[in-house]
Amino acid sequence: MNPDQLASAIRDALAAAIAAGELNIAVPDEVPLERPRSREHGDYATSIALKLVKESGLKPRQIAEILAPRLEAIAGIAAVEIAGPGFLNIRLDTAAAGALVGQVIAAGAEYGNGTSLAGVKINLEFVSANPTGPVHIGGARWAAVGDALGRILSAQGGEVTREYYFNDHGAQIDRFARSLLAAARGEEAPEDGYGGEYIGEIAGRIVAANPDAASLPDAEATELFRSQGVELMFTEIRATLHEFRTDFDVYFHENSLHESGAVDKAVARVKESGHLFEKDGAWWLRSTDYGDDKDRVVIKSDGNPAYIAGDLAYFLDKRLRGFDLCIYMLGADHHGYISRLKAAAAAFGDDPDVVEVLIGQLVNLVKDGVPVRMGKRAGNVISLDDLIEAIGVDAARYALIRYSVDTSVDLDLDLWTKAGNDNPVYYVQYAHARLCRMLANAADLGIDAGEDYDPALLDTPQENALIALLAAYPGVLRTAADLREPHRVARFLEDLAAGLHKFYDAVRVLPMGDAAPTAATASRLWLSRAARQVLANGLGVLGVSAPERM
RNA sequence: GCGCCCGUAGCUCAGUUGGAUAGAGCAGCGGACUUCUAAUCCUCAGGUCGCAGGUUCGAAUCCUGCCGGGCGCGCCA
After folding, report:
1. CA-based end-to-end distance of chain A
2. Given the DSSP bridges, would you call strands A409-412 and A363-367 parallel, antiparallel or unpaired?
3. Which of A262, A421, A476, A503 has the most C-beta neighbours closer than 10 Å?
4. Most distant CA pair in chain A: distance in Å?
5. Whole-number Å distance between alpha carbons of A482 and A486
6. How far apart are the C-alpha atoms of A343 and A286, rounded to whole Å?
7. What is residue A233's three-state secondary structure?
8. DSSP line for A259-274
9. Residue at A14 is within a domain
10. In which domain, by residue range, is A55 found?
11. How many Å does it take to go from CA A237 to C1' B11?
């Protein structure tokens, strides 16, 4: 019996009590169910009796007393106790709890998936770093979290399109082009330009391919360095992200919106909406309706589109492609965009809720207890490449995903390269590798777990706890998807790994010496396989490898 | 000044919709390997959940006001 089945059994008990006239309420949609911290409080506990106080007009313990005998009569429930203010503490029958192991193995790689987003077309835009330099650490956070979120939303049945918006238009690109040209000519970088080492490197590659590039007339040369520089930078960014196991379905070029006339069209359309107004010769988006502290210019008084005109056109494009939900993952320095993007949706006649903006706080790197300097403009870049080189893809992804994006984090580079259980990614991966070795040993010994197992034999506290962890996984995935919080999966995996290690330490799986395998051996092998499956599934969702040996 | 995020153990951080005695890892003390990977496990210790009010059967969680830190407030992109 898993938590979902238990929750629906409780709902059935409520319905029965209502039908019998003992309760005068509607059957609640959700039944709160938790795994109590203390084992003395049973396998599961529900506060449903406390929640129904107001609606029923009864005292919590009265409600609990109505429910307890009905629950106790359900097959698979061993005992029900009323405790505290009105909690119902539920103890499962060992065999009923252990049956979950078979469900996990039957579901395999699909175990944990749900349908809460079935059929929802989701556009997930993340990273979208400017092609004026390598992906830096902030972009890296989104690469890891965004990719994991994509996998989590897909696991709930969402039809996810990962998208990278490529700002290859405008003044920053012009500065980038001039910086490249200056580097190629051996001149100082322009005052407002880019000065990192990569500028010289990219310029060198352009010159190598076009030997006379630097000596062309300024306008022509700038254009050449612009187009080729952007292309080279883009290729490099894509390669780095690919190495980081983050690939996109769509790389969208901002410039294409301007060249195709999509921007003009989008603006023309939105001018009629009432969300745009003309003032001082410019056209403004009434973003204050959605919490902005001032309205924003869409068409400047010189007739040129402002930056957000591109955002408007891009949003319209997404909607025309049929997305039900557009998620934008932005850095903390862009939180002001939320109201603009909501206003943009409203201007096109959409519910602003189709736009969802996730804001990620900044990431700092720490080495030897000292913050590592960063700053893209200065060229003192901590890039994603650097991070991968320093701690590897698995640790980097895991480290960036593990924390709520609401909090700024300091990543300690020393910690994430350590091989020990203070390094969470090793701790989790080791649990998986340990199981793989043990299961391989079982195969070497010719021990066959058989077609079936006896769930009632999984009766130690460690086995009980491990099974409960496996049972909790679908709920964790569901919550992570609902709240767009991949870090929950990582935290769960750490709990699961701890549960596994405790089990491994306390319960011998394979027979000692020459002893013959028993029925318990088979049951424990089944449990081990199930645990390995869930560890692998969870790591898979994070895009972190599940090694078979370490 | 205004907006967003954060403030939980010495350190790094968990803690969805309010629920029982607030958790984990590290650091500290003391233990456990002749047999499945000790990259592990067990014990002890560690707290005014920033402060002050409020809401209620019940608040780390919700509301208000303060304090402290990060980020942002262009007809730039």
Report:
1. 34
2. parallel
3. A503
4. 92
5. 10
6. 7
7. helix
8. HTTHHHHHHHHHHTTS
9. yes
10. 3-92
11. 35
Are A108 and A61 in a shared domain? Answer: no
Residues A451 and A534 in one domain: yes
Question: In CATH, what number is assigned to the domain containing residue A452?
Answer: 1.10.730.10
Question: Is the CB atom of residue A290 positioned under 7 angstroms from any atom of strand B?
Answer: no
Which nucleotide is closest to the Cα of A483 by its C1'? B16
pLDDT in tens, A184-237: 999 988 888 888 889 999 999 999 999 999 999 999 999 999 999 999 999 999
Total domains in the fold of chain A? 2
Whether the CB of A430 is less than 7 Å away from nucleic strand B comes out as yes
For residue A329, the cross-strand partners are A358
CB A308 within 7 Å, strand B: yes
Prediction pTM value: 0.95
**pLDDT means over runs of 10, chain A (550 residues):** 92 93 88 84 91 87 93 94 90 95 97 96 95 90 96 97 93 92 92 86 96 94 95 95 97 94 94 90 92 91 93 95 96 91 93 93 83 51 86 95 92 86 91 96 92 94 94 95 96 96 95 90 97 97 96
- Side chain identity at A212, as an amino acid letter? D
DSSP per-residue string spanning A521-546: HHHHHHHHHHHHHHHHHHHHHHT---
